[in-house]
Design a protein that fits this description.
mainly alpha
């Protein structure tokens, strides 16, 4: 018995108190949220929280041969999350709250990886601890962990791959870099938002600090290229499958579809004399015009029509297109979490009263301001690391410009590093307050003497 206790103590020491505390906080908060949510919406209505959930379930049923429909949904969503749902339903049946439990554990682990990324890159324990706690208490992260959506699985793969990639770059480990390439390749299959991330991996390798060794720099760049090639290879497998099955080389149909349904449709809605009918009705009317090719199974032509519509809209209204794109970015990077409005409706009036006091509508730029502040503070310490960290939210900000109206889930992947930059700002502000207090104390002491 004594030896077993000592073994447990040794395991805890190896893991560290910080990661364990962060994981415990994240896990408890997400479980409490689930316990509050289930009686209010009912376990049977988990699948009705968001429209996208039905798409993923239908795609999963088609992928595992449980349904003849769902071919287009699989093309639209990609294979990653439907595969995850299909495996989970094989294990648990369609008991969806058990799948949420799995997502809760993955979400809690993601918070630990954010802590580890901060420890690796910033090397300040208090900053890392605050970053992990900020990730653990994120309402966006908590609510998404309790929804059958792609974000939690994607975020877990993404944060783990970032940690392994940076760990591999800071050591002589090729194994970590290769695994990172595999994981981020799988993340693309879950959510295509990181489709262009191979470029960033190479840029990270160019910027990653190496103490002036020429051979070391070349090795880092080679590692970045290898990770990028692995990522491209994995996502190309599904792209080739879609090319063979549908004559359309794409990982998922959501990217260009979002550009049509939100960005291009938003521009055309502003310029249309029929705009009085409301945006959703106007957007759906444009979408229905493309359904002929979809219903006939000709996805390549359907996808081509969408692409041509987006390009023609840009050529016809270039300035308005860019203005709408930038407006979408601003909205997505400052929007606050709203999914809890659907998940916990019983307390809607209470938290809406709080939100009205601290937000501007559904937006609050505080986190953005602290992120930018954190970048400038880090830049004084290590410019290369600061740029690497900033490039990640900047990338997702640029990707978010094609869509809007989906709450904080669009910019959620940026939380892989945003808590780190916010934590840097908070520690800096705390130090400033201490300096100010000490100066005030010394001044009063001098006056009294």
């Amino acid at each position: 018995m004594k030896s077993e206790i000592m073994n447990i103590v040794n395991v805890i020491r190896q893991i560290g108190k910080g990661p364990l505390m962060i994981y415990a906080i994240a896990l408890v908060l997400r479980l409490l949220y689930l316990l509050v949510m289930l009686p209010q919406i009912g376990p049977e209505h988990i699948v009705n929280q968001m429209p996208d959930t039905a798409t993923y379930i239908e795609a999963a049923d088609y992928l595992f041969g449980r349904s003849l429909t769902g071919q287009y949904e699989l093309y639209l969503a990609g294979v990653g999350y439907p595969l995850f749902l299909g495996i989970c339903t094989m294990l648990f049946g369609k008991v969806y709250w058990l799948i949420l439990l799995m997502q809760i554990m993955l979400s809690s682990l993601s918070c630990v990886f954010i802590y580890k990324i901060a420890r690796l890159l910033i090397k300040i324990k208090i900053v890392s601890l605050i970053a992990g706690i900020l990730a653990a208490i994120s309402l966006t992260s908590i609510s998404l962990a309790n929804a059958l959506l792609t974000e939690t699985l994607f975020f877990f793969l993404f944060t783990l791959s970032l940690y392994l990639f940076f760990k591999g770059m800071s050591t002589n480990s090729w194994r970590r870099v290769i695994i990172a390439g595999v994981l981020i390749g799988l993340a693309v299959l879950v959510r295509s938002a990181v489709l262009f991330f191979p470029v960033l991996l190479v840029i990270f390798a160019v910027l990653f600090p190496v103490h002036g060794q020429v051979e070391g720099r070349r090795q880092l760049i080679l590692k970045g290229i290898v990770a990028a090639l692995i990522m491209v290879s994995i996502m190309s497998i599904w792209g080739i499958r879609n090319k063979v099955a549908h004559d359309s080389f794409t990982v998922s149909g959501t990217g260009m579809g979002a550009a049509q349904k939100y960005l291009a449709a938003g521009v055309l809605y502003i310029t249309s004399p029929q705009s009085s009918q409301g945006f959703i009705a106007f957007r759906d009317s444009l979408y229905r015009e493309s359904l002929t090719d979809f219903n006939s199974g000709n996805y390549a032509e359907y996808h081509g029509n969408i692409r041509r519509m987006v390009i023609s809209t840009f050529r016809q209204y270039p300035s308005l297109f860019i203005e709408t794109y930038i407006s979408n970015i601003w909205d997505n990077i400052t929007v606050t979490s709203a999914l809890h409005h659907v998940q916990i409706p019983r307390y809607k009036e209470k938290y809406e009263a709080v939100e009205q006091k601290i937000n501007y509508g559904f937006n609050n730029p505080l986190v953005l301001i602290l992120t930018i502040t954190g970048f400038f503070i880090l830049a004084r310490r290590n410019l290369n690391i600061a740029v690497i960290l900033l490039m990640i939210p900047l990338y997702f900000a640029l990707m978010s410009g094609v869509t809007f109206g989906q709450g904080s889930r669009i910019f959620f992947p940026a939380q892989a590093v945003q808590p780190i930059m916010v934590a840097v700002s908070l520690v800096f502000l705390y130090d400033l307050l201490l300096i100010g207090r000490n100066l005030l104390f010394l001044r009063r002491k001098h006056q009294n003497s």
